[in-house]
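Hi support team,

I've been running sequence recovery on a batch of backbones for a student project. Most finish fine, but this one hangs at about 90% for roughly twenty minutes before it completes. I'm not sure whether the input is malformed or the queue is just slow. I've pasted the structure tokens below so you can try to reproduce it. Let me know if you need the job ID as well.

Thanks,
M.K.
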């Protein structure tokens, strides 16, 4: 870790007795925390403690026979899955069978000039039989998306996610550097429509920060926290917290769970931001001020003034959304956007 990052405060560590205590701890949590050894009893963790080869064999035993999407970056990337000089991805994405991908990983172990190989966010239910059932954290009534991330040494630029996230280090070691949501201005975000994985990422190289090009990154570091996870450790990352992720060993596996406390029928806030850029950002200043006022009224304040004067049965999408009214609004948006 560079000298600029070694002195960062460590993320709070907590202890949890059982699934019920974890459920209570996660409910309403808005700060990150580490749970040491939460997944230490997983068969996958135990296999990884034997060797990387044993972990790969264990995973492969559960794999469905279907193509896996894999990203491969040249050795000169040093594991940083990022942009090239032309602001295109510095890695290529292809498909392959898991045995072939694992053979390439094993072939590169211990070699200085090995490519970076990364399987990102693989759905554990769709691509494996029994892997989730044998290796998972009970999350109460939550219905999370369960994903597995498998790779060589990699560096994933700081980004954020809308859902809450419980990330479990299963094999190898992971380093997470976290920043609160409001630090986005100091992270020098790249494009929102040309991204490695659908979320805007920080353009700062955390290994060699260029403070001349990114002076506000010093301010971001004043608010940063770091955690190094060993096999079996878990990290809770609240919604919208920025996280830079490093796989530190030659073979690393992470299992994570994403969930939302809001109903799934609600839309994605990022879609609203994208549409606002297209429809509002380039308007004259006076018009933008009017729309800012309307957004405050209908979206950010959204108090009783909006609907008190409208008969209850006629409030439609101005009332609290239901699956039915959200569906009508989605259909309306699709019609208007397709014009």
């Amino acid at each position: 870790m560079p000298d600029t990052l070694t002195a960062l405060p460590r993320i709070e560590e907590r202890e949890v007795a059982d699934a019920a205590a974890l459920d209570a701890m996660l409910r309403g949590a808005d700060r990150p925390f580490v749970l040491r050894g939460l997944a230490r009893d997983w068969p996958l963790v135990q296999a990884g403690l034997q060797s990387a080869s044993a972990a790969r064999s264990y995973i492969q035993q559960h794999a469905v026979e279907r193509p896996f999407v894999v990203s491969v970056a040249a050795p000169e990337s040093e594991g940083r899955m990022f942009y090239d000089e032309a602001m295109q991805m510095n890695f290529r994405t292809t498909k392959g069978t898991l045995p072939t991908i694992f053979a390439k990983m094993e072939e590169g172990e211990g070699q200085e000039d090995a490519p970076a190989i990364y399987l990102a966010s693989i759905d554990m239910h769709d691509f494996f039989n029994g892997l989730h059932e044998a290796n998972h954290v009970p999350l109460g009534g939550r219905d999370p998306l369960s994903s597995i991330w498998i790779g060589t040494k990699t560096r994933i630029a700081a980004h954020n996610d809308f859902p809450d996230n419980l990330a479990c280090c299963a094999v190898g070691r992971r380093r997470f550097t976290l920043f609160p949501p409001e630090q986005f201005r100091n992270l020098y975000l790249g494009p929102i429509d040309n991204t490695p994985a659908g979320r805007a990422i920080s353009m700062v190289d955390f290994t060699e920060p260029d403070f001349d090009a990114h002076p506000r990154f010093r301010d971001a570091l004043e608010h940063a926290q770091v955690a190094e996870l060993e096999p079996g450790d878990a990290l809770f990352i609240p919604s919208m917290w920025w996280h830079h992720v490093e796989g530190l060993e030659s073979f690393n596996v992470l299992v994570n769970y994403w969930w939302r406390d809001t109903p799934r029928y609600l839309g994605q806030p990022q879609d609203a931001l994208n549409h606002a850029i297209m429809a509002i950002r380039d308007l004259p200043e006076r018009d933008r001020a009017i729309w800012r006022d309307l957004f405050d009224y209908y979206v950010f304040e959204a108090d009783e003034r909006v609907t008190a004067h409208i008969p209850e049965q006629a409030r439609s999408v101005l009332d609290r959304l239901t699956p039915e009214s959200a569906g009508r609004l989605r259909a309306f948006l699709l019609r208007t956007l397709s014009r």
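--
Follow-up from support: It reproduced on our side and the slowdown came from queue contention, not your input. The two ends are 51 Å apart (CA to CA). No action needed from you.
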